[in-house]
Amino acid sequence: MAYSVLIVEDTNTMAALIQVYLMGWAVEFRVAKNGKEGLTMALEHKPDLVLSDVQMPVMDGFTLCAAMRADPKLHHVPVVLLTSLSDDASRKQGRLVGATAFLTKPVSNKDLRGQVASLLHLDPERGTPA
After folding, report:
1. 46 CB-near residues (< 8 Å, 6+ apart)
2. pLDDT tens per residue, range 4-43
């Protein structure tokens, strides 16, 4: 079984890096360039997990997360916010909008893989169902 992961990231390099980190895992990727596009894709494809940047044009990651939590079709989907904002106020904002986790960029391979494995119940070494 492949899990569906939606990456919402306006930087192509970062979106590609996330995919490289999880390469060979039992996951399929979709990529959105901003929160508005991400919300549309999430409603259409119902991902198992969303990995979202916070600082993006059109709609930021905080707003995306809040919109997902308010939608009965998406409120259960785990959202991991990835951001260079590491201050307490940003972390608090992430909690207030219902983020499942908050990882600071530059995110390490180990941290990202561990978080994704935990949320999708995968073996953190192989990326297969545990």
Report:
1. 4, 73, 74, 77
2. 999 999 999 999 999 999 998 989 999 999 999 999 999 9
pTM: 0.94
Amino acid identity for residue 25 in this structure: W
- pLDDT at residue number 124: 80
**Burial of 30 from C-beta contacts in 10 A (0-12 / 13-18 / 19+):** middle
DSSP reduced 3-state for 100: coil
pLDDT digits (tens, 9 = 90+) for 67-126: 999 999 999 999 999 988 777 888 888 899 999 999 988 899 999 999 999 999 988 888
Instruction: Measure CA of the first residue to CA of the last residue in the chain; give whole Å.
Output: 12
Contacts of 96 (CB under 8 A, 6+ apart): none
Q: List Cα–Cα distances, 14 to 20, 95, 122, in angstroms.
A: 10, 23, 22
The span from the CA of 69 to the CA of 78, in Å, is 10
